[in-house]
Amino acid sequence: MTLQLLFDALSLGGIYAIAALGIALIFGVMKLVNFAHGQFIAFAVFALIVPSTDAVAVMGLGAAPALVLVPAILAVGAGLAVASEYLVFRPLRNASPVALMVASFALGVVIQNGLLVAYGGRPKAISLWPELGKPVALLGAEVPMLQIIVIVSVLVVLALLAVMLKRSRIGLEMRAAAEDFGMARLLGVRANAVIAGAFALSGALAATVALVLVAQTGVADVRMGGQIMLVAFIATVVGGMGSLPGAVAAGFALGAASVALQAALPIEARPFRDAFLYGLVILVLLLRPQGLFAAASAKPRV
Amino acid sequence: MMSKLGVFDLSVRYGKLTAVNDISFSVAEGERVFISGPNGAGKSSLLAAIAGEVRAAHGRIEMDGDILSGRVPEAIARRGLSMVPEGRRIFRALTVQENLMVGVGLRRDKTAVPDDLEAIYAAFPILGTRRHANAGALSGGQQQMLAIGRALMTNPKLMLVDEPSLGLAPRVVDEVYDRLCSLQAQRGLTLVIVEQSSARAGRVGGRMLLLRGGRIVADGDATAFAADDLLKEAYFGEATP
Known about the structure:
By secondary structure, chain A is mainly α.
């Protein structure tokens, strides 16, 4: 029972952490809160199926073997994010942070309506990797195979990202740019390359969340990115805007708190779980307004 | 000799305020030029315009005959100009070595990077000792040395240094200038240094441009300027002892 809770907390927290990272990465280099991130997730979900407004979903890319499907969906997410940067955010590079934020809302609305036109508004049942739903016995508990895969994938993604940021050229440039973009440019760091790189990574992270959501819920819904975007945004605030370790830690903390409340609250209070969760968030922010991990810098953008 | 840096009729404005007003000068290859003058004379704005951080309202900037004005900072850096900015602006969350490596991406001679890194550590041994420490933990003087080393790692031909003595103890300033001058001699660098203290510039030696109200009011030998109390009084309003 408690072991099952632990797995629930890890898998839910892991999804929140990956989504929060996608937001924190872009905020780090551009001081932009990208509210279209939820729609990036939804777009990657729908990329799995053939566009049509029929109630029954026909797998397109989703029918491909995992070895093709996973990299292809990550590329779709990255491609959408890079295209968004090029078409929407680059022309606004010198606009105020508020203008950028509003533009990201607008972008989200455009993507969502594009999906509505192509796929219709009704949620569709899709089954991705149904064989992963089978439970396996682990340390005396029955755990769905999928949950183990989710937890392992989340840890692998986090490790890869950490290595990339710590060891690669573009990772070093991103970290320098997150702290003082103007100084990085004086040292020859190309602003366009760093920003496009951050968007590509963020889009790939959105696609990762999309795959996990579809595999877990078996549904494609135009609105499915919105809820997770909200939680992920809260995680980046609680973690300290722009702090990547903070976003990850807060994502896991929110997931764990959510699962713990679900288990600990009396039955009649459970429908109000989120109210308790966000109450906790307010408490944390009252005690630490700068977030759990203060970011290295909040200097203006380029 | 061909001039390394040419500035022609340069003006920089912030709204209605004119920070740099129609300045022209040129710097020869290998020269050391101090830019001095009172607060608000336009010294830092001049450097920021040359490096591409602020856009010139008017005028032209050339390096080796190549036009810099209108280009973005990273494009100017790639032409061999490097900046040690006011306030040092080191990346505090990065290690000392990571700070030094940020500017290496623009270099074509990547194979020379490890040797250059060792050369920086030889010039500033404290940076070598603390290479894996967070740069934010360094003292002010060490951060200044890191900012200089970081600029040198881009392998520049022309280096702009903004107020290297700001906030440092006089003994540390001596050390910073000693290293700067010997590095210049080793590498044949051209240096343009903003230095508020004309006395300091006079002791180090070189050419001096005196700025006031966004204009060049004097151009000559730094040591001669520093010795000339009348001139100092005229331009800085300093009391003569």
